[in-house]
Design goal:
Layout lengths: L7 E6 L6 H10 L3 E4 H8 L7 H8 L12 H8 L3 H28 L4 E5 L14 E6 L2 H10 L4 H11 L3 H9 L5 E5 L4 H21 L2
Parallel strand pairs: 1-3, 1-4, 2-3, 4-5
Helix pairs in contact: 1-9, 2-5, 6-7
């Protein structure tokens, strides 16, 4: 049942370079609140952030620059190929991110926004999908992923490493993990920004209609 002021919560996930942020931008323009888990993670590891001391304890001074700020490139180089180090980093960061997330959701509810979009790469694996009435798996072709990542200035070898790490079947794996639950949509961003906007508008209209019907 939908509460009087509880907004529809839409989870956004999917492979890197497939346009999750573009979908979030459209949803923001359509009147929703967008919460980006990566932005929250950066906030908790920013100077004076609550996770910074724990990161230094676990990974040492090598991942900090001379000014004492986190060197995200150095940290990424460590955790990218080390599953144990990545798991340790996630155990440090995720509790702090969850607290910021809960605060942002409470604020959105108090502001009576109609819907909230939560963008997170590990939305499904991290358990956040369970909080969402809708989960949108954003997808595009591998060729489009490569082109978009290259446009961002990502080096070719880094692009290929990231794609290999996620695997070519990520969308299928995510939808498999989600199973038969309601509200799962595969949203293609293969076309132009105008075409993507039309796809998002249609998906949102259907999602809101289904959510309101549950009340």
């Amino acid at each position: 049942m939908m509460g009087e002021t509880r907004p529809l919560l839409i989870g956004l996930t999917g492979p890197i370079g497939c346009g999750k942020s573009n979908v979030g931008r459209v949803l923001s323009e359509l009147g929703g609140t967008v919460i980006d888990a990566d932005v929250l993670a950066r906030a908790v590891s920013a100077p004076a952030g609550p996770a910074l001391g724990q990161i230094r304890t676990r990974f040492g001074d090598a991942v900090f620059d001379p000014n004492g700020e986190l060197d995200r490139g150095s940290l990424a180089a460590i955790v990218f190929d080390d599953a144990t180090a990545l798991a340790d980093l996630e155990r440090i960061v995720h509790p702090h991110v969850r607290r910021l997330l809960e605060a942002a959701l409470d604020a959105a509810e108090k502001d009576h926004v109609p819907f909230v979009a939560l963008e997170a790469i590990k939305l499904v694996e991290g358990g956040l999908a369970e909080r969402c009435a809708e989960v949108w798996v954003i997808e595009c072709s591998v060729a489009t992923q490569r082109a978009r990542l290259a446009h961002r200035g990502t080096p070719t070898d880094d692009v290929e490493r990231r794609l290999a790490t996620q695997g070519p079947d990520l969308v299928a794996r995510l939808t498999g993990l989600l199973g038969e639950r309601k509200g799962v949509r595969r949203v293609s961003t293969e076309g132009s920004m105008e075409e993507t906007r039309a796809v998002v508008e249609d998906a949102l209209a259907e999602a809101l209609e289904a959510y309101l019907a549950e009340d």
